[in-house]
């Protein structure tokens, strides 16, 4: 519950947030009249109290009880039976009090630092029925403040919610690894308001309209933020245009493929011919193809023959099994077909997106050249490539295993330069958890352990903590984590704080430091496998709003999972 002062402020129409308040959850709101005293609320007559529920509507059970006792005993009894029958047969619908920690849908979010498309401004964002109704700069929003519901965050940053386009939630089929409820709660705790789930690591993989339906059903009523879905491009559907069109028509936001073994049996790798065929179909729908760009070379076969330390517990051993040449070779192959996406090309309208780039030397230059030639290409990297270096990873610490691997500090510096200069377009988490047993922590075998970094709830503070060293601005964080990912995933109504956009907002304090351990409240599943455990970060998330609902505030989540599943609509010309 709020402190007493917060309760009084909310009832009077203006609620000011500060760190000292015990909760962001306001009380049930009752507007006060002009002749009533602040803080006392409105006295409710006893009769009205008996016949109204907590939301202010009629309490049917009490009305029926009065009918039964005072008016028509037999009719009242029949109505009671009818009420019970209808209550049991009606589907469960979550009301606003369950979906949001706020009691109503029209309010103002005030701050001295609001990140907009026109820069960082002081003012307030008006939220009404899930959308941004206005953005008012300066003090103008304070007019008639007694009639407005205001949350004043002071110097905390108000920014568009993060859009994470690269997440493995493993649902359905492997919910012991993650799952929609825990994964989207973690996302909300980290300021992510929209995430796009990858087609593999769940079972079955999402490679058809039917498997997309299964995934959508698993997500429905189980997600705390909005969730969209990438479909899979695999050899079995790549040359079957009918199958791919069915998957895209069912709502997949785009496709994802691997150019090396994925580690998942029902998600085999593709080659340039598969990708070329997939782009031709995607062009009709104007959607992207995301590619894991690594191609096996001879390193894995020869690493035991070089006479060096081949201890499987050694991180340097693992590094040699996936050298930068794998990424370079894959991107060279990929760019043989990416020209199809250029204006006038056979796949104009499609788009290629390279996921989790790690090699900052040769691969980046190839991608820059493709962009300069008019190819429709973008690239992402991930916070773990910007935060860690191979020199820091201790032997046997398999929490850091991922593919492509975390490379040396010099490579990290080049990655940061590319992000800052715009050669890398956006960031994503590549959140890929598993059960702790698969990480083989006791054995410490990098060659056998499951690869993947568990990071969903920490990407904002990790980006900020390390980015501050390079002079990263709040506007850049919003560009990398909100605006550009929203565009890639086709979410035109998201990604910025602007009028008529969905009210997807994160509020965070960029100067607050905190230490991560297994007891940290944002660890919702398998904290022992996170590479970030034991680190100190800067940038604490205070609140996360999804479509105007306060789904996370001061360490608490809304009681109901009211996130939406995001399914693309079929273009009218298809």
Descriptive notes:
With 574 residues, the chain is of the alpha/beta class. The protein folds into two domains: 72 residues, no CATH class; 406 residues, Metal-dependent hydrolases (TIM Barrel), CATH 3.20.20. It contains 18 helices and 20 strands. Helix 10 packs across helix 13. The protein is globular, with a radius of gyration of 26 Å. One of its GO terms (cellular component) is cytoplasm. Pathway: Nitrogen metabolism; (S)-allantoin degradation; allantoate from (S)-allantoin: step 1/1. One of its GO terms (biological process) is allantoin catabolic process.
Number of domains: 2
CATH superfamily name of the largest domain?
Metal-dependent hydrolases
Overall 3D form: globular
* Helix-residue proportion: 25-40%
- Radius of gyration, Cα only, in angstroms? 26 Å
Largest sheet descriptor: 10 strands, mixed
Low-confidence stretches: 1-94
Classify the secondary structure makeup into a structural class.
alpha/beta
Question: How many strands appear in the DSSP assignment?
Answer: 20
As for the CATH topology of the largest domain, it is TIM Barrel
The CATH C-level name of the largest domain is Alpha Beta
Count of helices? 18
Rounded mean pLDDT score: 85
Strand residue percentage: 15-25%
N- to C-terminal separation? 52 Å
Pathway: Nitrogen metabolism; (S)-allantoin degradation; allantoate from (S)-allantoin: step 1/1
EC number: 3.5.2.5
GO molecular function: allantoinase activity; cobalt ion binding; zinc ion binding
Domain Amidohydrolase-related: 157-551
